[in-house]
Amino acid sequence: DELTELRRKLHREPELSWEEFKTTQFICEYLDGLGISYRRTEPTGVIAEIAGGNPGRTVALRGDMDALQVEELNKDL
User: Fold this and answer.
1) Residue 58, CB half-sphere, CA atoms under 13 Å: how many?
2) Nearest 5°: phi and psi at 71?
3) 43 prior amide bond cis, ω within 30
4) From CA 61, how far away is CA 30, in angstroms rounded?
5) Over 90: is that where the pLDDT of 30 sits?
6) Is-contact 10 26, C-beta < 8 A?
7) pLDDT at 67
8) Which pLDDT value is given to residue 60?
9) Which residues are 40's β-sheet partners?
10) Mean pLDDT over all residues of the chain?
11) Which of 16, 20, 26, 54 is deepest in the core (most CB within 10 A)?
12) Across-strand partners of 38?
């Protein structure tokens, strides 16, 4: 599954807060591949918008990209 592989890739290269430069670049390239427009916010933020085809409510999603300094015990992630 594509999303599972995406999560695994991001988990293999964790970056701490305000140092997510590789993660930010990866996300921008992924969005480019999907044809989704976005804008970068400094230093490591990304805001993307996927517009629906009909008027109505808007759904907003937010996700953190930074990692915590912990040892991953589950090698299946």
Assistant:
1) 5
2) -90, 125
3) yes
4) 17
5) yes
6) yes
7) 80
8) 86
9) 46
10) 88
11) 20
12) 48
Quick one: tokens of 3?
């999303």
Of 27, 2, 1, nearest in space to 13 by CA = 27
Supply the pLDDT for residue 6. Answer: 92
Q: Read off the tokens for 15.
A: 């970056």
Find the largest Cα–Cα distance for the chain.
Answer: 46
DSSP H or E segment with residue 5: helix 2-12
Segment 46-74, tens digit of pLDDT: 999 888 888 988 888 888 888 877 776 77
Closest CA to 22 of 49, 2, 38, 43: 43
Percentages of the chain per state (helix, strand, coil), in multiples of 5: 30, 10, 55
- Give the global pTM: 0.78
